[in-house]
Amino acid sequence: MTNEHTIPQTEYTGRIREILSARFPETQPKAFVHTYGCQGNVADSERIKGMLADMGYDFTDSREDADFVLFNTCAVREHAEDRVYGNVGALKPIKSEKRDMIIALCGCMMQQAHVAEKIRKSYPFVNLVFGTFAIDRFPELMYRVLRGGKRVFDLEERENVLPEGLPVRRDSDFKAWLPIMYGCNNFCTYCIVPYVRGRERSRKTEDVLAEAREIVASGAKEITLLGQNVNSYGKKSEDGVDFPQLLRLVNAIPGDFKIRFMTSHPKDCTKALLDAMSDCEKVARHLHLPFQSGSNRVLKAMNRGYTREKYLELIAYARQVMPDLSLTSDVIVGFPGETYEEFTETLSLIREVRFTSLFTFIYSPRKGTVAAALPDPVPYAEKSRWFSELLKTQEEIAAERCADMVGRTFEVLVENETKEGGGMLTGRTPGNVNIDFPGCPSLIGSYRQVRVVSAKNWMLTGALAE
Prior knowledge:
Elements: H1 9-23, E1 30-35, H2 39-55, E2 58-59, E3 68-73, H3 78-89, H4 92-97, E4 102-107, H5 113-122, E5 128-130, H6 138-148, E6 152-154, E7 175-179, E8 181-182, H7 193-197, E9 201-202, H8 205-217, E10 222-226, H9 243-251, E11 258-262, H10 271-279, E12 286-288, H11 296-301, H12 308-321, E13 326-333, H13 340-353, E14 357-362, H14 380-405, E15 409-417, E16 424-428, E17 434-438, E18 447-456, E19 459-464
Parallel strand pairs: 1-2, 1-3, 3-4, 4-5, 5-6, 7-10, 10-11, 12-13, 13-14, 17-19
Antiparallel strand pairs: 8-9, 15-16, 15-18, 16-17, 18-19
Helix pairs in contact: 1-6, 9-10, 10-12, 13-14
């Protein structure tokens, strides 16, 4: 008898095609995939969609029209989890009308045992639940649902899982996410990621470069290298290639494209990395380097592994070798035990560095993390006032920076039409600043020289410079 776990996943894909062909003899089944959270989740969803396409699914933007619905979930913030529960609950009446619809949940949120148990008990109409270590086994799990009609849960944490060779259905023809590593070893006290993504593990350099070459050959104009901490790429690897070296290798691939990467951790950001960015002409002059807090006491309580002074030293060197560098960051307001005086240290760091933009959050406790058990005496309303003060500070800086860009010309990747339409396009500068300008939709997916003609707060308007 054949052991089901030894069957290649591609064989399960073929079996699923046969099942779906019998169930949908005159139509093609449709899949709806919605992704929450970070770019790593987006990259995972592109691989899941690649497998779904091989199974015979077409895709739809309407969950009501779908025969298969999947939510790829995020566990970083409570708000994201609440949205998942609400949206899953909203599927119940749809499932009652379409009993053959398959509902699946995956991603970081599902890797938490208490979440999976809640789904098991409170959402019996969900057919398939799998965690972050089972993406490469998706065809097998899907086959078990289709063949047996029973609910399937796969939450096993497996070491050294690197899902290679999976088909990819990318969301864009000209931008590509390229995962180079998975997991995290940092254990910041507020963060759930190491618990749901596992320990750091890097893809082989040859596999990363092979996928990068495929992306360039497909005509993509921008590659974003992804990892929970890209700076840790290559640690304990057999070939000894670290992240600065990988940047140089990707940069050496022939073609007209740009390179971005995220996310970087300050404790592992080195002068060698900043030198590589400076030397590589294809690497965008944009560095996302989350500092989280400007207070050394709070940074220590967060287990961040660096000080305010070390962070500012890195910024000074980065701007020395790249004077045109655009810096963005993440900030947490109201970490347990943080005082207003410590919060003002964050404001002073923001004023000193003058970031292009910030991703800002009020602290959200995550079950199972160290910080969730810390005393947290400051009321949420007070934290909200601090948050408003931070936003006002950054908005003033962003408005001044954008005003200084008026009259300058930038190479812009044209990404799409604006929501308002009317012949307006939108794109991003090398520093990751959005700019709107009039133009023909045929320009989407290309690089164009755009001159900034006006700035309103942090919004830029431009005109084609050719």
